[in-house]
## 1
Amino acid sequence: MLDPLNPLSPISPLNPVNQIDSCSPSSSSDSGSSSSYDYPLPTSAAMRGVETTMQAAQPIDRLLRLDEVLHTTGLGRNTVYRRMRDGTFPKQVRIGPNSVAWRQSDISVWMSPLPPSNDQSVH
């Protein structure tokens, strides 16, 4: 009798050779039972869709608290809030009744166009 959990069995979902299109009774005489069925397996096109979906997963955007934002940007607390008020720094998001944070992606985008320092004394 064929074991569906055995990866070498022709009806196992782990067997890549088995690609049956319908749920019909098995006509093979090696099973010894007339009640065994060969179940359809996903086609390679369907499996490619699953792989594409898994590969397309985006990384999770971290939320940075004020101390980490200050460390990452090198700005002071007053400067961060002043620039937020002026519209030149990313807005914070509320994460609780008394808690705020900044999206790491927003901070990264804000930092990316900053030009390098023109200070010649720093080498």
## 2
Amino acid sequence: MEQGDNMGQETGETPVDEASLGGAEPSEESDMAGSDDEQQFSDGQDDDFDDTSDDFDDDDDDSSDLDDSGSDETLNSSDSDDSNDSGSDDGADNVDFEPLTDSYEELRHTEDSAELSAAARKPLPPKSDQAAFSRATALLEAVAGNQHTPLEDRIFLAETMPFPNILVKLSEDENDEVRKAVAANTADKNWLVGRLTKDKVSEVCEAALRNPRTSWKMRLEGAQNPETTSDTLDFLGKLGVESEPDAPAILSAMVRRAVALNPNCSQATLSKLAQDPSVDVQHAAQKRLA
């Protein structure tokens, strides 16, 4: 990657302007855009950002990822499997079974907390048994969306389930602790955890910002948000240096710089960022300390 013409000579870094994020909201410090440091930060962006723009492509809130869970297809295919199984032996006695859609609706609307709790904790069948596995995960979606499921069971599902159809249900739960558990789940799709960075409750937002599945775009927006707490800013201010050392250098430096400019950034973090490997992060922190 080529170095910018007018900056980063001391460290060899190539800075990038936040405007190149393609959709990131301009930060509140935009009134500083005319400063020398801000002008330096934008030089060379067209050449250098080509190598990093792909990191933001994952932010599309594309609900087609739900196809991985097969929520709707699961209901249909499992019903078909059950019907085929019931008629496979012409000479066999008729076996009573309940179609998946009936079971789903029952679990979705029942007020029997004991039944719901048992369903939430029931071990999943092996994936090798595709029909049974699909049926079980579809039924868990109904359990997750039923507010009569005990809170501890909804939190258990939010913490342990890797299936998007279940996590989406739980991400809309009325209880903050359930949404917070989803936000911290490292099996989340990045668009889902990105959605939770915008939650109405700050603890949910900040749990999402700490999730390694969160995109750099969401991290940058979190670092720019004046409502982000100093504890979360401390976490974001370490990205690419003390934590995630293999993170993209330009993107992590952009996040640390935004942390330095955030009015909630602690003095301890500002002091560290004033000695940051990136010249642009240093300058931003030193201006705040001046």
